[in-house]
Structures are given as C-alpha cells and as structure tokens.
Design a protein that fits this description.
Largest sheet: 5 strands, parallel
Helix content: 40-55%
Structural class: alpha/beta
Strand order of the largest sheet: 2-3-1-4-7
Strand content: 5-15%
Length: about 250
C-alpha cells in the first residue's frame, strides 16, 4: 500500500484550487438540491466529487447510504438488512427514510447531491414531500447523456476508490499510480458487473427505470441535459455552465 500523500505531493495550482474551494464553500448560499443521473459509465463517479466540492455539498449515493445504515445498525438499516438477507428488494419506505435521515446531516447544510435516487416516479414524489417538510427542494437534475454503444470501453476500464467513490479509468482518467487512489494512496477496485457481458442488461434496466423519472422533472423544468461524450474536463465545464457555476 502506498504511503498517504503530504502537501509536498501537490502542485501549487492544486493547493490554490483547494484554497479557492474552501473560500467558495464559506460563500455558498446553501439549500441547493441536485440530482445526478446518467447510465453506467457516463462519468457520474468522476463528476460527482467535483460538484460536491464546488457546491460544498454532501454526495448521497443510495447504495452507500444503505450499506452505512446497515453497518451502523440503525433502525432502518436493520430493517433493510433483514430484507436484503432474504434476497428481496428494499422497500421504497425504507429507502426514502434513509435518504431523509441523510439529508439532515451537517455536511448537507449547504447543498446535497443525490446519486442513484430517486429511481421511480413514486420515489420522486416522496422525495418532494420529504424536502418540503425540511424547507428544501430539488433545484437541478443533471442528466449525463451518452449513446449506449460508447459506454463499453468506459465501463470495462473503470476503477473505483471504495471509501470516497472517486472513479478512475485506465485510458480516460488514469490515477497517478496504477491501481492506487490519488488522494489517500489506498488501493482501487473494479466492480464485478463492470463487464461487456453484463453492461447491456444494466443499460436496459437504467433506461426503463429512469426515463419516467427524467420526464417527471422535465415537466418541472429542472432537467439539465449534458452531452457526456467528451473528455471529463470538457463535461465538467459543460456542467458548470448549465448549473451557473462560475470560476475556472
């Protein structure tokens, strides 16, 4: 395992960027809600940490939230564990409850990014009710749009840092050291379903689930469609422009 990085390992530009991020965080108005949507391989794992830093937001992935609730032994986590142990799908009520609890965390005070939720129109409507009770709302739905036939190469070369969710790609966004996270020096892993054989079914499920949800938010005028068939840096610039984020 590589040693953790120190300040000396970062360039002056990287340190200045971090200082600017912290200044932006203090100035951020707060209460911004963003949903990040896109098929497997569209680049959510690369763009979400950038958006999180820019908005001073918490990044809420339903898979991570479920695992965290189960590992912490919360009431909802224990209910979810019992269901998953039976091989059944966790009910909307439990998922909605776990998301509702997560949004109350201090790190979500300025903004929150939802990733992988809502998956259905019913969940979207429940989320509206949850946020209304908390005096919050969904302001933007970012849809990373890319043709299915482009995604195979992206998916099969993807590696992930489990703790943070940072995503790398052997060709398009490689880590500084192969197999190692740039920030922590911890090992990266590859998901077992990131294969060309599994991808078509995953894409089919994604489109079937998310198309009605995207339509739901389009009716509210909240969807920002981003062409994700480009370099990650270009996609990030497109996202910033669509969300009205200023700066370099």
């Amino acid at each position: 395992m590589a040693a953790p990085m120190s300040l000396a390992d970062y360039s002056l530009e990287e340190l200045l960027d971090e200082a600017q991020r912290r200044i932006n965080c203090v100035k951020a108005p707060g209460n911004r809600g963003v949903i990040l949507m896109g098929p497997p391989g569209a680049g959510k794992g690369t763009q979400a940490p950038k958006l999180k830093d820019e908005l001073c937001a918490c990044h809420l992935s339903t898979g991570d939230l479920l695992r965290s609730a189960v590992s912490r032994g919360t009431e909802l986590g224990n209910q979810a564990k019992a269901i998953m142990d039976r091989g059944d799908l966790v009910s909307d009520d439990i998922v909605n409850g776990i998301v509702a609890e997560a949004i109350d965390a201090p790190e979500c005070e300025k903004a929150f990014i939802l990733d992988g939720y809502p998956r259905t129109v019913q969940q979207a409507k429940a989320l509206d009710d949850i946020l209304t009770q908390k005096g919050k709302q969904i302001d933007d739905v970012v849809q990373l749009d890319i043709e299915d036939n482009i995604l195979t190469e992206r998916i099969t070369g993807r590696w992930i840092h489990k703790a943070s969710g940072r995503s790398y790609h052997t060709k398009f966004n490689p880590p500084k050291e192969a197999g190692v996270d740039d920030v922590t020096g911890e090992p990266l892993y590859q998901r077992p379903d990131d294969t060309a054989e599994v991808l078509p079914k995953r894409l089919q499920n994604y489109h079937a689930q998310t198309t009605p949800v995207i339509d739901y938010y389009k009716h509210a005028g909240k969807v920002k469609v981003i062409n994700a068939d480009a370099k990650m840096s270009t996609v990030w610039e497109r996202m910033k422009a669509a969300l009205g984020i200023s700066g370099e």
